[in-house]
Structures are given as structure tokens and as C-alpha cells.
Amino acid sequence: MAKPHVNDRGFIRCPCNRCINNAQHQLEVLETHIHRFGFMSDYNDWIYHGENVYAASSSNVLHPNSGVHDRDEMFEVLEDIISNDAEVDQLGSQSSNVQYDDLFTALNSELYPGVMNKWTNKSFDELLKLLKLAFPKMDLVESHYEAKKLMTKMGLGYHSIHVCKNDCALFWNENSMLETCPVCFESRWKMQAGRRTGKNVPHKVLRYFPLAPRLKRLFATSKTAKLMRWHQSGKSTDDNVMRHPVDGRAWKDFDSKHTEFADDVRNVRLGLAADGFNPFNNMSISYSMWPVVLTTYNLPPWLCMKPEYLMLSLLIPGPQSPGKDMEVFLRPLIEELNELWENGIDTRDASNDRKVFKMRAALLWTVNDFPARSSLSGWSGQGYKACPTCNENTPSMRVIGKTAYFGHRRFLPSTHRWRSNLDFDGRTDRKRPPRRFNSVDIMDQLRRVKTTIPGKHPNYGGVKRKRGDDELNWRKKSIFYELPYWAEIELKHNLDVMHIEKNICDSLLGTLMGDPHKSKDTDNARRDLQNLGIRSELHLYEDGNKLMKPAAEYTFLEANRRKFCRFVRSVKFPDGFAANLWKNVAQNDSRIVGLKSHHYHVIMQRLLPVGCRSLVNKTISSTIIELCTFFNQLCARTVNVTDMVKAQDQLVIILCKLERIFPPAFFDIMIHLVLHLPEEAILGGPVFMRWMYPFERYLKRLKDYVRNAAKPEGSISEGYVVDEALTFCSRYFDDIETRFNRPDRNDDGIHRTRRLFIYAMNKVHAPEVTHELLSLASKSNIFVSSYPACIVNGVRFVTHARDVRLKTQNSGVSVPGTENEMFYGQLQEILEFSYLNDFSVVLFNESYKDDQFILASQAQQVFYVEDPSRGPNWRVVQHVNHRSIWDITEDGMSDIDLLQDNSSSNFTLFVDLGNLP
Predict the structure, then answer these.
(1) Residue 289 forms beta bridges with which residues?
(2) Is residue 61 predicted with pLDDT exceeding 90?
(3) I want to staple 369 with a disulfide (CB 3.0 to 4.6 A). Which of 108, 247, 499, 716 is the partner?
(4) Cβ count near 726 (within 10 Å)
């Protein structure tokens, strides 16, 4: 009876007691399973094997996978896992898989007689023991360890690779059986008094998490398989607009050079990030562990940087940083990337009837802070030639105790008047701008780099050598050049905007505030001015036995310093926007301390342009505002190519203005790197998908896995594998709260957005007359509800009367006018009008004009910052762009309200303070 109902591949659902119609097999395997495991006792209506069954009512509808009981979500999980993990031959068939027998057994067993297994809580051993005592008939695992072992079978595991104690080589592949390092000949094992311990214990262990099975699992489930094509369907149709890396020039250039790879949209584009962190809460312990994390750029921009979609690839052990030996640890990943590029791997696509295709993958670029970039790229970030873009033509000069990256006049047109101005460094500048170095030039430079011995052994790889002049700043040839396509990639290593912005804001804020620990206006900086023979009014002088330093215009006076601190202390942000900064202002309003990277991000783009206007002269404040406005442009979610082209030229002017204001010692490499950020934005697309913020947050998640301080790498590896399995399973649970359906911080409880359509109707019973329209046409209830707060589209709004008592500010609103003008006000009252059929309309009562009522859905949130330059009654409007609201409409989302997000075109880079009233 079942034979005529096999699918086109010869497979049919298996009704044995183990598979219970979840797995599909060939007829021979199905017959074996029935003899081995028995037939389902409750499978009375053979709906999968030719029998037609029609339920009399919805309450009698049989579930597709069972005879009488409801479907457990875990059956769907195992079905996708088995389908993904099964061996795939050329005909697309899969072999029988018996490694999941114990999972099926646990799934089919009853937690308690008469109750199916729906236990999802993370239990500890003590709780398990208590439950076993309370309910002796309850079928539970013996311990949390046993439960974790069971869950890891749904994970993807990892490989432990022994490493030489000096980081010279891996005991892997051809070296896997060696007892000593092939480079420094040190023993593979730990020794005590020249002898091995009782058990062979390696000095270091590298954890490698294979990439291919993790990519296959993204296609194995329908939850993510369709999303892996988003980069093709969701890319911008306007060549001038960039919302995703697919819109950048580097992606398009890669596709044009590798058309065969680009033809299949399912081929995967990856980004790599690596950074070191201390896994212990005690920061006095010196320990540096380096995870290597991959992200998939096929996904939409609101998903690819989520921690659930980041993949841990390598866990490089501490306690020391790998430094120049990073390529030793990257070897397994590079070999797998080569295999995925050249041969690919057979993968089932759940979004295409589980058909098999050849999945390939390519690494687009890396994302790292500047020191880590040096370890990965091979170009040293120190010395006179530290800039990897300017290369051998980096503008730099030696000042007392350091190298200053000064001299940006060379980027100006040759006829510009500043070229002859002596106020910069006492000399004219006739140098040409640095030439562009293409892939051929870089490869020619790398041919001159000498091969070095890896490792840190003092007699081998640890011997310091002096680079030759022809090697420039190259320390090594990066292992990434073993990828056949790497040399042709336009953007190989991203400059991290997060750390650049943080360091620049730290230098600006420290110098403006005159912080003795962070100011760049040191005594040596003043001596540099004297040595250059410029700005004599700032030179040090002696007054009796004291060395005096004249006050500089770019440093706040004591009263202004306190005024700026009070300004920062007074700022209140909307809920979820940023941490309150009043905690970081000293009690005496003299210093701002304890700032983190996101604090600097907010200060640079929101507060510093407002707070400095009246505290320094117009020349200095306007230059700082222009630099801050550029970062606002750069960090917009939607970036316009024309804006970045203009910013490229305007940044040269801004940097030259800064050179006329601050001493040369102010200009570290971070100041100079700003000049190259617009070009990288044109190549790579929006910055928020190419900076370190999501990866730094991910390191915090890895740190939370550490339970055994003696074995931090092992704790993280085991915790990651279990969390990976739980994350995969949680995609299937819709009736319980998981990380995929957990309500947002501000959830309004509305999961479907309704739209109101009004038509000309001639009949009362016309189909256009919806319940919503009829309810609105009827009068509202005479009783109107008033609320002090509400949530609209995930945004929290609070009335002004309540807002003044809170640490946050959620009462600011704006609404567009009929002629594209914007009206701003504060929310005074929230009114809800009730209609028939439980429909309601929410109105906001505002304070900006006579017609004070607007629909709640029309309001956009803003917040107000005091303007120190105009007095206590003036406010500066700051727009809020919520992280969960996007301006991209994808297929199937046309009924969801999306607020317009910020664009780089919303900011004017040059500001004339003289035009302000």
C-alpha cells in the first residue's frame, strides 16, 4: 500500500516507534525499522501512506506526524538535524542514521506517566535529586552533566588541537603524531622535574569549531534557509544608497571577478573578527585569550550581527597573546576556507524542497581594532609608516618621545594657499598626495618580505630581527594570502570605527578638559612647538624657579570646565538609548571619568558639538563640530556614496584646521586614519556591519561561560556547544519564550499592524466595510482613558509630568507637517478612545501648536539637550533612531509600520556658527 506513495527520491515517512513519521527513508530501511522498533500503536489512519482521512471538525484534525497526540517541537528539530547531518551522495539520497537513537528514546519517553516530555528548564543536580525524591516514577536524567551530554548531540562539537608551548606549530595533520615541536623541538607535554606527569597533558590546546557543518545547518532549517538569500533580494536598487555590504563597491567588484561564485546566491560571504579578552573578573590577572568569530553577510542587516548568528571558529588559548604567530592558529580555518572555495560541500536547502546544492564560501574581510589588524594583516601599525593605506608615504614626523602623524596639507590641491602657510610646522609643504597602491603593488612588496620562523622560542622564532628598508612596515606575509581570491579583494582589513572614534573623543575630551592623565597638551608638546619655531605664545617659560605653561585657547578655563561637566550631568537620554552619564561626572564637577566605548560614541556625536560651542572660540568649536558631524554621517544606517565622496575632500580641510589648532603631539595614528574612513565606507557599505561593537558584546557572552577558572578555554568551549544546540532548538518553540520570540525591552503587545483603508461604498454590506471601519464610523465611548505612559511600535513614550521625575527622557516628540516641516514638542497627555469590537485610537496631546492632538502612530521620539551657549531656556533637538526599527521593507513585511531611519544625507558637514541666532 505504501510503495506507490514514495517521493521523487524514493523516500517515504517511516511509521516505526523510533521515527514516528518524522524521518524519511527508502522502503528497505523502512521495513528494517518496523521489524526492529515495531509499528506505531496509535497510527490508525495512514494519512502518509495512501489513506484519505477528513476530519469532521477542527478539534478532530489529526496531526501529520502522529496518530493521536500533539506534535512535539523537538521532532521537527531532529528532522532538520538528521536531514542535514545525513551523508549525501550524488543522487541526493541519504543514508540511515542511528546515532540519534537515545534522543528519540528520550523524546518518546514520558516525563511522568500520562505526561509527555515538555521539560525545558535548565536544572541543576540538586533540583534533579529533589524531583527524583518527590516523584520516584519520574523519568529524569541523573545529573546536569548527563543532560548536557544529551544536548551536545544536537550541537556540532569542536576539535582539540595541541599547540607548541612557544606557539611554533600545531600538532595537527602531518604533525599530529609528533612528540616534540618540529620547530623548537620542545616537548609536546608538560613536564615536572624533566619527566612527564602521570597523564600526558599538552602545554596548550587550540579549540577549533568546524565551519562547514555550521553553515549547512543555516540551510537545514526553513527558519533561516530563506534568509540566506536576503542579500540578493534586499539589496538597494539605487547605486548611490548603501544599506548592506552587498551595496558596497568591494562586494560588487568581487562578484564581477568571480561570476561563477556569484551566480548562486546561496554561496556564503563571511566576515572575520578576532580580539583578545581577559576571561576572569579579576583584571589584575594578566591573561589574554583570543576568540576568532565569523559572521554571515548573506543575512539581513538586522540579523547578521546578532549574537545568535555569530559563529565561534577558533579559541586561541592564553595566557599570552598570539601576536605575530596568529597565522599558526589560523591554519585549520584557512584550510577549510580553501576547501569551501575550491570544492564546496553538498548541502540541503530547506527553502527549496531540501534539494542538494554545492555550497561554497568566501571570506570578504576582517574586522579588528588597529593592534589586532597588525597581527592579521602583517603590516605594523607603528613607526613612521604606520598607515596601511598611505603605505610608505604616510605623513609623519618625529616629536619628543613619539611619532606624530602630522602634515595633511599634502592631500590639498597643489595651489591651495595653506601649502605655503608657515603656521603649521614652520615650513611650506610641496609634497604630492600618497599614491594609490593596488594589489599588484602590494604583492610586489610582499615578495621582498623575508620568511620568518614562527614561535616565541628565544633561539628560534623569538629572536628579534631588524626589518630591511625594502620591507617597509611588513612584518610577514599574512596567511590570508593563501586564499586564492584574497590578493584581489579591495577591502581586506577594515579600520575599526568604534576604536577610532573612541580614541579621538578621548584625546579631544582630555585635551579640552585639561585632564593631566589624558591631555595631549603636555610639556613635551609645548617644547615641540618651540623646536618648530611656531606659536610662540604657547612656549614654556621660566618664572623664577618655576616652569610655566601658558593657557591655550583649546583648553577650557576652570569655570568652563565645570560648566561642561554640569551640562553632561544634566543630560537625560530616552529609555534604552545610552547609559546615564551623571555617574561619570566627578562630585566637584571637575572631571569626567570611567567612560566606555559607547559613552565616547554618544559624547562625540551628541554632546560635544553642543557643549563646546560657547566654551572655546568659534574657530575651534566649528572645527570640532565638523569632525563630530562627520562621525554622525559615517555611522548612519543608510549611507550615500555622494556624501562619502564629499566627506573625503572635506576631511582634509578639517584635519588641516586641527593642525592649526592643536600641537603636533595631538596627532596620533587614530587622527590620521579618519581620513580613510569615507573610502572604506564606499567599499564596504554601512559601518555598523563592519565595526567591533557586536563582537565586543559577544566576548562578554563567552566570558559568562567560564565556570572553572582553572580551565577557562574548556569552559567556554563546552558552554558554547551547549548554547549552540539550545539556540538551534529554540528556533522551533513558538509557544514558549525563547531568545527568538522574547518580547523587546519596550513591547506594546501588538503582533500585527492593521491598516485602515477607506473606499467609496454604495452598499452597506460591501466587502470593503471591515469591522475596523464600521467601529471607527460609530461613535467612541463617552469615557476616555488617560495614561501617563504608553509603548508605540516598541518605543516608550512618557508624559512630561512623569518624565521630570525619572532618570530618562521619553516625553520629546516630533511630527512632520504638511509641507515637510518638522514640529517639536513635549508629550502632555495620552488619551485612548474606545470603539466597538475592542478597537481603540490613541492620541497624543502635545505643546507645540494650537492643534495639539496627533495620532500616536505619527509621533517620532526625540530628546532635548540644554544649550549652554544660549542659556537655560534653550534646547537642542536630538533625533532618536531605534535599533529595532529599520527603513527596509522586505517581502512579506508590507503590513508592518517602519519609521524612516537616519541617513548620511541628514547631516551637513560644515557649520557656520555665525549664522546661528
Answers:
(1) 277
(2) no
(3) 499
(4) 16
Q: Is residue 310 within 8 Å of 694, Cβ to Cβ?
A: yes
pTM attached to this predicted model: 0.84
Q: Which three cell numbers stand for residue 474?
A: 611588513
How far, in Å, CA of 145 to CA of 141, rounded? Answer: 9
Phi and psi torsions of 246, nearest 5°: -65, -20
What is d(CA 321, CA 334) in angstroms, rounded to the nearest whole number? 20
The answer to whether 322 and 189 are in contact (CB under 8 A) is no
Residue 812 three-state SS: strand
**Is the Cβ–Cβ distance between 311 and 295 less than 8 Å?**
yes
First to last CA, the chain: 87
Residue 808's closest CA among 860, 856, 880? Answer: 880
Residue 838 C-alpha cell reads as: 475592542
Q: What angle, 0 to 180 degrees and rounded to 10, lies between the N-to-C axes of helices 212-220 and 326-342?
A: 50
Look up residue 315 and give its three cell numbers: 579559541
**3-class DSSP state of 840:** strand
489 and 363 in contact (C-beta within 8 Å)?
no
pLDDT confidence of residue 129? 77
Whether residue 789 contacts residue 830, with contact meaning beta carbons closer than 8 Å, is answered with yes
Q: Provide the 8-state DSSP code for 740.
A: T
Candidates 510, 538, 507, 513; CA nearest to 525 is: 538
Q: Which SS3 state, helix, strand or coil, does residue 33 take? A: helix
Task: Estimate to the nearest angstrom the gap between the alpha carbon of 756 and the chain centroid.
Answer: 37
By CB neighbour count within 10 A (0-12 exposed, 13-18 middle, 19+ buried), where does 334 fall? Answer: middle
- Residues contacting 598, CB < 8 A, separation 6+: 578, 579, 693
Rg of the chain, C-alpha, whole Å: 32
**How far is it, in rounded angstroms, from Cα 645 to Cα 677?**
11
pLDDT interval class at 69 (50, 70, 90): very low
CB neighbourhood size of 323 (10 A): 15
CA angle, corner 590, sides to 589 and 594, nearest 5? Answer: 90
Question: For the chain, how long is the longest CA-to-CA vector?
Answer: 110
SS3 string of 143-159? CHHHHHHHHHCCCCCCE
Helix 144-152 to helix 125-134 angle, to the nearest 10 degrees? Answer: 110
Give per-residue burial for 664-701: e unless 16+ CB within 10 Å, then b: bbbbbbbbbbbbbbbbbbbbbbbbbbbbbbbbbebbee
Q: Are 388 and 377 in contact (CB under 8 A)?
A: yes
Residue whose C-alpha is closest to residue 373's, from 388, 358, 362: 388
**Element holding 63 (H helix, E strand):** none
Give 234's pLDDT tier (boundaries 50, 70, 90). Answer: confident
List alpha helices for 747-864, DSSP H. 771-777, 800-803
d(CA 550, CA 39): 93
Q: Are 331 and 237 in contact (CB under 8 A)?
A: no
pLDDT-derived band at 702 (thresholds 50, 70, 90) equals very high
Which residue bears the cell 605575530? 324
Q: Which amino acid is at 171?
A: F
- The span from the CA of 646 to the CA of 663, in Å, is 27
What is the model's pLDDT at position 297?
96
Query: In sequence order, which residues have a C-beta less than 8 Å from that of residue 412 and are 6 or more positions away?
Result: 418, 419, 652, 653, 656
Alpha helices, DSSP H, located in 140-243? 144-152, 212-220, 222-225, 230-233
DSSP 459: T
Closest residue by Cα to residue 370 from 765, 691, 838: 691
Going from the C-alpha of 606 to that of each of 274, 509, 571, 861, the distances in angstroms are 29, 13, 10, 15
Q: Which cell goes with 86? A: 545525513
| Cβ contact 493:371 at 8 Å | no
Q: Pull the grid cell for residue 7.
A: 517521493
Within 10 angstroms of residue 117's Cβ, the number of other Cβ atoms is 16
Q: Is the pLDDT of residue 677 over 90?
A: yes
Q: What is the pLDDT of residue 94?
A: 45
